[in-house]
Write a structure and sequence with these properties.
The protein has 15 helices and 37 strands. It has a seven-stranded mixed sheet. A hairpin with a 2-residue loop joins strand 23 and strand 24. Helix 3 runs parallel beside helix 5 and helix 11 crosses helix 12.
Length: 816
């Protein structure tokens, strides 16, 4: 009997052991009783899709749908309160959790850094989606970290999609980034442009002063902010319209990797640069980089598009699955790379003439004749809505500029909007715009409060609030000087500084008062009067603002490139792509081998300093000796002395250095407070000085006139082709591009500083038909800039009147 029982127990143990071995070995932590073990998903192999012909893109972007009544803010569907892991250098995209193999991640933030500051901040931009992405089930994820002084019980971040709130989250993550996910309601996303809005309402924990509001901030991590689409279908690209949906990577950049086996052959430069500009205008992303190569495509990823360009014979070794139609006709299609499974834009044909025709099918929808005036600057990819372009006397309601009616209960309210002026804007010395303000404030607001207007972060006007009983402001005119306006895009901000007795006492809990004390209404208007219009050369600010004068050229612009290699051509494509966005259309260029063939036309010179024609350097007032002396500073290079530091040291050593320092400080004070500079105390502007780039600089952009003075020559150069490419990738970024101004701009990769040399002497270039009113405005601005000339003319005019009056009186009355 005992032997039978022992045998039964042995059989049961063996059966249990065999059953336990059917599950895979698992080294994960313990699970709750009864939890099932899910097998690891295996991503399916990407199918090799047939090529899809590229259809011409529609140039008009559909407007986002606006619901009739905003829905209430829903609660988060998924909230991950655990801190996100600290991002590693150069790998910020891994800050949030990795997506499912079946999910497609579309990053949203078009900036390398994104922060919402103060008690109220609101930022909007548009994200372009394909029909497949708009139809897919989607979720919205963002990662944020805030200042430790932000009170979480009274502060919130609200996310809007197409002007509809989809989620709100308390601001309470001071120690590390936290990721929050909201489900996107079905049907809210649409093919084309979708407006994304972040709004921050923040209050201080303990302080009630105006200064404390500058301590409030919430950083949104670009690498942790994205839309997730379920299924692989959302990754499919089917037309040229999908180029608009390329998006950005986790650092806010957009990259086009263009592989051209015949890159260095003659005749390929012009069509390739036209392609680069067309891709740039189609996507209209703010931080674009172009990289040319002759080898295989680099690894695919978000915000990257691979492009294969060449004849069928040239591309077949790189892409064995080349469609047979490429051997007989021009072909532009999206195909799937069998090695990576990612979509690739294929442009091919039996010859390079056919390849150029295929490129035209992509680029031609964004072409615009030079004589057709545009009404807006395309900014919606980083700042929605698009900025209106103002040419003459205009009044615009703030509601059309993206400003919302807002009731505010804090201490410092700030909102901003964008407007554009043309490249021939010339009213910086005398012009005045007006903000017709519709606002209200309660009797709690004390005298001493004020409303400030800023233009491009420079204060332009201040209006005190003096009433002790509150008030309603109906189209209150606030004069805004136009001295800080510049050609192209301009940002105007309205800031209200509000002080109350409660803030002075700052009782516990009063820092988060819920009662509104100020309101701004979107019926307010911006009025810009007629201003002088005449082109000026040199003027790098106009080139950065609207690609002037190259964006207006009726004929192709001569382009000199010292050598056709990957670095130089990539730099040229990055520069021309940014200029095409500013111009609103691709700029036609023609390659030239010598400046002697250019004549007096507008031209662009790109290349290393050693290969730059001496004529081009002389015309832009750059020392020709720099071709041999300009070398980048190596970190370990001994004996290198910083010129600026050495000058300051010797200035203090030499007798009288202290006195000269005081004189310099006084001169700066006079210029800062009275706008009187040495140049304004000259009868006529002086000549430009020869500029020698310092060794700390790694990129130089200079502009001057052509030999006969009828055109503008722009030189873009660096010590080497590598420095040229890397420097332009930084300089063309959205946060750096507006800093280009004067007649010379330099960038240093060692210090990350952008420095400019102001224009001393410029030439007028007529840009509009002759009119007395325009010439009167031009004369008013010129005399306001040159005050000694104005004073001399005024004295001469008074003397002339006196002599004329005396002569007339001698002939009147009775003579003795």
């Amino acid at each position: 009997m005992k032997s039978i029982v022992a045998a039964s127990l042995l059989l049961l143990n063996a059966s249990a052991f065999a059953q336990a071995q059917t599950a895979p070995f698992d080294m994960s932590g313990e699970r709750p009783p009864g939890a099932s073990v899910a097998p690891r998903p295996t991503p399916p192999a990407p199918p090799v899709a047939a090529p899809v012909p590229v259809r011409p893109a529609v140039s008009v972007t559909p407007a986002p749908a606006t619901p009739a009544a905003p829905a209430p803010v829903p609660a988060p569907i998924i909230v991950q309160r655990q801190p996100a892991p600290a991002p590693q250098p150069g790998a910020a995209a891994n800050a949030a959790s990795q997506p499912s193999p079946r999910d497609i991640r579309h990053y949203l933030v078009p900036f390398s850094k994104f922060s919402l500051g103060g008690e109220y901040d609101r930022r909007s931009w548009s994200v372009y989606l394909t029909p497949e992405q708009a139809a897919a089930k989607a979720s919205f994820t963002f990662a944020h970290q805030n200042s430790i002084v932000v009170a979480p019980e009274a502060s919130a971040l609200t996310v809007y999609l197409n002007n509809r709130p989809i989620g709100q989250q308390r601001v309470g993550s001071p120690d590390a980034p936290s990721a929050v996910t909201f489900e996107v309601p079905s049907g809210l996303l649409q093919p084309g442009a979708n407006v994304v809005t972040f709004q921050a309402d923040q209050r201080h924990r303990t302080d009630c002063s105006i200064q404390s509001t500058y301590e409030l901030w919430s950083n949104i991590d670009p690498a942790g902010t994205y839309l997730s689409f379920a299924g692989r279908k959302a990754a499919e690209l089917s037309s040229a319209d999908a180029i608009r949906a390329i998006g950005v990577d986790g650092a806010g950049r957009t990259a086009f990797d263009i592989v051209v086996p015949a890159l260095e052959q003659p005749g390929t430069t012009e069509p390739l640069l036209r392609l680069a500009q067309g891709l740039s205008v189609l996507s209209s992303m703010p931080n674009q980089i172009f990289a040319f190569s002759t080898a295989s495509l680099p690894a695919a990823g978000p915000g990257r598009l691979g492009v294969l360009v060449g004849t069928a014979a040239e591309l077949r070794p790189l892409f064995p699955g080349l469609p047979p139609g490429a051997e007989s006709a021009p072909l532009a299609a999206f195909v799937t790379d069998p090695r990576s499974g990612s979509p690739v834009l294929l442009i091919s044909g039996p010859s390079w003439q056919a390849v150029s025709s295929a490129i035209d099918t992509i680029v031609s929808p964004v072409d615009r004749p030079a004589d057709v005036r545009r009404d807006v600057l395309t900014t919606e990819r980083w700042s929605a809505p698009n900025a209106p372009l103002i040419f003459s006397d205009t009044s615009i309601p703030l509601s059309q500029l993206g400003v919302k009616t807002t009731e505010f209960s804090g201490r410092r309210f700030r909102t901003s909007f964008n407007v554009g002026v043309p490249a021939d804007f010339y009213a910086n010395a005398y012009g005045e715009a007006k903000v017709l303000l519709d606002a209200a404030y309660t009797d709690k607001v004390q005298p001493g409060s004020h409303i400030d207007i800023y233009v491009n972060d420079n204060i332009a006007s201040t209006v005190p609030l003096t009433s002790t009983t509150g008030g309603i402001l109906r189209h209150l005119p606030i004069r805004v000087t136009m001295r800080h306006f510049k050609p192209g895009l301009n940002t105007v901000a309205i800031e209200a500084i509000l002080m109350t007795k409660g803030d002075a006492a700052c009782a516990p809990g009063s820092s988060a008062d819920a009662n509104a004390r100020f309101a701004l209404f979107d019926t307010s208007e911006l009025h810009i009067p007629d201003f002088a219009r005449v082109g000026q050369l040199p003027n790098l600010a106009a080139m950065a603002g609207t690609a002037y004068p190259y964006g207006r050229a009726a004929e192709p612009t001569p382009l000199f490139i010292d050598r056709i290699d990957a670095d130089t051509l990539s730099a040229a494509a990055t520069l021309l792509g940014q200029m095409a966005i500013m111009a609103g259309h691709p700029i036609a260029v023609e390659s030239v081998a010598s400046p002697n063939t250019i004549g007096d036309r507008d031209a662009i010179f790109i290349g290393s300093i050693s290969q730059m024609p001496a004529t081009a350097l002389s015309q832009t007032n750059v020392s020709t000796a720099s071709q041999a002396s300009w070398r980048p500073v190596v970190d370990a290079q001994p004996g290198v002395v910083d010129t600026g530091t050495a000058f300051e040291e010797w200035n203090s050593k030499v007798s009288g250095g202290l006195l000269r320092g005081q004189i310099t400080a006084f001169r700066e004070w006079v210029g800062r407070n009275f706008d009187i500079t040495r140049s304004s105390l000259q009868f006529i502007p002086g000549a430009e000085e020869i500029f020698t780039p310092p060794n700390m600089a790694t990129l130089l952009v200079a502009q001057g006139s052509s030999p006969a003075g009828a055109g503008a020559w722009t030189v873009v150069t660096a010590p080497s082709a590598k420095d040229l490419r890397e420097g332009l990738e930084v300089l063309t970024a959205q946060m750096n591009w507006p800093q280009i101004s004067g007649h010379i701009t330099t960038y240093s990769s060692k210090t990350a500083k952008i420095e400019t040399v102001p224009v001393t002497r410029f030439d007028f270039v007529p840009s509009t038909p002759w009119s007395v009113s325009n010439y009167r405005l031009i004369a008013a601005n010129w005399l306001s800039t040159n005050i000694l000339s104005y004073a001399f003319l005024l004295v001469a005019f008074v003397l002339l009147i006196g002599i004329s009056t005396s002569s007339m009186l001698k002939n009147l009355g009775r003579s003795k």
